[in-house]
Amino acid sequence: RHAATANLLTRRDCVVVATVSCIYGLGTPEEYAERMLMLSVGEQLERDDLLRQFVSMQYKRNDIAFTRGTFRVRGDTVEIIPVYEELAVRIEFFGDEIDRITMLHPLTGEVIRQESSVHIFPASHYIAGPERMERALEAIEKERDERVAQLKKQNKLLEAQRLEMRTTYDLEMLRQVGVCPGVENYSRHFDGRAAGTPPHTLLDFFPDDFLLV
Predict the structure, then answer these.
(1) Which residues share a beta bridge with 40?
(2) Which SUPFAM superfamilies did the record assign (predicted)?
């Protein structure tokens, strides 16, 4: 789905063959697109600022195991494998300027081609900026407190304790790293949707003039 959404937002000649998974919930297309990072040769950008942006997009630094969803740093060279790509992206800096962008084989290091610019999309569809994240956390806390109080009123003390512990753990994970196991269960709060409304799906990432067969 990552490859599908990335292509839908950057290309017009895109054909998507999907199963029933196309109606599974995803994050909002607007937030996903806004968090996309476009890098161009000649662009002024500090290397450390780029690393921070990768982390905020939920990519993980790993200088040893270089796999999808990770990036590594070697001096003035930063390499990343987007979650939707088979090739790695190498960004070479000269001072605070992007000097070269190349696509390479992640295992052999063979340079496949050189690019003048590249799009990097988030590692998760459920990504939120600081303000949106804070609103979501407040909404999750509110619902947690309501559900816990409801369970206690029904004398379901064990269930109340489990719910409170699990949700509190998820909240802490969201605060610290921006994601948690089962984050899709909180999509309503990230989207600001009312209870009972359907979530965004892959179909929401298509342009208005798309053809469905």
Answers:
(1) 117
(2) P-loop containing nucleoside triphosphate hydrolases
Q: Does 150 lie in the same domain as 107? A: no
- Is 197 a domain residue? no
H helix runs in the chain, sequence order: 2-10, 29-34, 47-56, 130-153, 157-177, 187-191
Q: Is the separation of the CB atoms in 6 and 121 below 8 Å?
A: yes
- Phi, psi dihedral angles at 114 (to 5 degrees): -105, 140
**pLDDT tens string 66-118:** 999 999 999 999 999 999 999 999 999 999 999 999 999 998 989 999 999 99
Residue with tokens 């919930």: 25
Q: Determine the structural domain holding residue 70 and report its residue range.
A: 37-120
42 φ/ψ sector (left φ>0, alpha ψ -120 to 50, else beta): left
What are the residues facing 113 on neighbouring strands? 103
Domain end marker among 100, 120, 140: 120
Q: What pairing do the DSSP bridges indicate for beta strands 77-80 and 70-74?
A: antiparallel
Give how many domains the chain has, as a whole number. 2
d(CA 147, CA 156): 11
Inside any domain, residue 207: no
Give the end of a domain, one of 66, 98, 120.
120
CB 136 within 8 A of CB 128: yes
Model pTM above 0.85: no
